[in-house]
């Protein structure tokens, strides 16, 4: 099978998922790529246009071991008549949860054929200088693996004559007890709303423009608590460092994160 065009869909408030997907696409060496960036709310319509390109690549970060919940309406509305799809989950070295399984279920129900999948590690959204979690990931080695994954996808696709031949096994992910019992958006229990220090802020408005939930008031720069998902895009994109990540229940949170972050995890590839 020869493929010439790709649609690439991603959500990436702090940029690690985007980096991984770009490296995969580079490895695939496709001529015609159409990107759909779901990071800002105006792109997350719940009635996606049908995918016309030869292959779809979807990349999402892992939030509370699942797909970030604001993405479900868009993802469920994707339509295809027997197109190939590649699934990518990027997680903060704590746990990749069931994201690949969820993406597989959703896309197969919409008529896609899952040809490849992978999980990669990205710097954790809650990572700070004092509590670094997967700092600097994806690193050079991760990006080389992502490019290599892209090349292998193309090689696999070339060997396919009929879509019926494709059957990809993705192991059942693990949903830890914490993820089952904690309420949705439990990130709010563990971290404070990252309000701006107005003595440092120069009111440039970058945080307002880039907030994936439109949760920041453009005049006061205050965050609407109920809308904030703690992605910390506003912290990481602020050139003046006017906002910071502050843990609530610091001792407990640091202990949990450090325990789960002990071992540096590696990308996993399913082809
Ligand atoms: C609300 C929230 C929940 C998260 N939950 C998990 C998790 O369950 N496991 C994990 O390893 N990382 C988790 N992360 C970290 C992100 O998956 C990780 O930092 C990812 O690289 C962010 O992608 P981005 O840079 O494209 O935004 C979470 C991040 C946020 C903001």
Description:
This protein is of the alpha/beta class and 271 residues long. It has a domain at 5-175 and 266-270: Flavodoxin domain (Rossmann fold), CATH 3.40.50.360. The chain contains nine helices and six strands; from the N terminus they run E-H-E-E-H-E-H-E-H-H-H-H-H-H-E. The chain has helices at residues 16-28, 72-76, 99-109, 140-159, 177-181, 187-190, 206-210, 233-236, 250-260; strands at residues 5-10, 32-37, 55-61, 83-91, 112-121, 268-270. It has a six-stranded mixed sheet, with helices on both faces. Helix 2 (72-76) links the parallel strand 3 (55-61) and strand 4. The longest helix has 20 residues, at 140-159. The chain is globular and about 60 Å long. The model has no long low-confidence stretch (mean pLDDT 94). It binds flavin mononucleotide (FMN). Flavin mononucleotide is lined by residues 12-17, 61-65, 90-95, 97, 122-125, 187, 229-231. It comes from Clostridium brassicae. Keywords: Iron, Iron-sulfur, Metal-binding.
């Amino acid at each position: 099978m020869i493929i010439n065009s790709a649609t690439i869909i991603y959500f990436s408030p702090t940029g690690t998922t985007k980096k991984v997907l770009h490296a995969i696409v580079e490895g695939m060496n496709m001529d015609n790529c159409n990107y759909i960036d779901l990071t800002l709310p105006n792109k997350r319509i719940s009635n996606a246009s049908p995918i016309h390109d030869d292959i779809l690549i979807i990349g999402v970060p892992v939030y509370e071991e699942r797909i970030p919940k604001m993405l479900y309406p868009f993802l469920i509305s994707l339509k295809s008549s027997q197109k190939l799809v590649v699934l990518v989950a990027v997680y903060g070295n704590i746990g990749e949860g069931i994201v690949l399984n969820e993406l597989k279920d959703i896309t197969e129900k919409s008529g896609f054929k899952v040809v490849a999948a992978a999980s990669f590690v990205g710097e954790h959204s809650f990572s700070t200088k004092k509590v670094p979690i997967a700092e600097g990931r994806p690193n050079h080695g991760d990006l080389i693996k992502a490019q290599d994954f892209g090349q292998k996808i193309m090689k696999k696709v070339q060997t396919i004559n009929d879509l019926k031949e494709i059957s990809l096994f993705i192991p059942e992910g693990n949903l830890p007890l914490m993820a089952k019992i904690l309420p949705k958006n439990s990130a709010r229990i563990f971290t404070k709303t990252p309000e701006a220090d107005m003595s440092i802020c120069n009111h440039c408005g970058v945080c307002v423009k880039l907030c994936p939930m439109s949760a920041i008031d453009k005049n006061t720069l205050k965050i609407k608590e109920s809308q904030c998902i703690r992605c910390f895009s506003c912290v990481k994109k602020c050139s003046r460092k006017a906002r910071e990540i502050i843990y609530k229940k610091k001792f407990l949170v640091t202990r949990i994160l450090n325990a789960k972050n002990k071992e540096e995890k590696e990308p996993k590839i399913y082809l």
